[in-house]
Amino acid sequence: MSVTSALVSFAVVAALLTIVPGLDTAYVLRTAIVGGRRPAFAAAAGIGTGSLAWGAAAAVGVSALLTASTLAYTALRITGAAYLVWLGVQLIRETLGRRGATAAAPEPTDSDGAWRAWRRGVLTNLLNPKVGAFYLAVIPQFLPEHAPHLLMGLALALVHNAEGMLWFTALILGAHAVRGWLRRPVVHRAIDRVTGTALIGFGLKLAAAPR
């Protein structure tokens, strides 16, 4: 398999994974609605940063630990689940504090909102062992025999990131187009409660998963 054919073949697989609704999509969409385009793109970049780390780890075999060691996998799974539940509870608690609000949700400071969104995007991705398991299972199949594995793993992850950014850009611009309506207090609270509940659900599902 040549480098070009490996990249093209992986792009097809990664594209299918990208458009399947999941935690990354929910997080970026919610950030776009509440924080605006800059924090949403920062969240997408954070998710991409995490994917690059997983891609490099899978290429050099580091993430094999997740498959070989039940203890390591379980520790990361529980940590990730706890983090998702914590995020969900925080969102729901904030909506209870805004119950009587009549004005639109306040705009976060751009720099602070973008930095926080990026950091949460990175953590959300890195603390999901199923992302690592996917990269471990898929990336080695697209590593040409004579290509440097670390560089090739990063290249494959970059292909996935590029497709992810195209998908996230469409979501972010779409959400921005109707953001005025979505940021109405009643709608805003409903979005945060639905997103918070989804995060808690993802966390509990992750905690309960045997592998």
UniProtKB/TrEMBL annotation:
Keywords associated with the record: Cell membrane, Membrane, Transmembrane, Transmembrane helix
Record GO terms (molecular function): amino acid transmembrane transporter activity
Gene Ontology cellular-component annotations: plasma membrane
InterPro entries the UniProt entry points to: LeuE-type
The keyword Cell membrane is assigned to this record: yes
Localization: Cell membrane
Keyword Transmembrane: yes
Coiled-coil ranges per UniProt: none
UniProt-recorded name of the protein: Threonine/homoserine/homoserine lactone efflux protein
Source organism of this protein record: Cryptosporangium aurantiacum
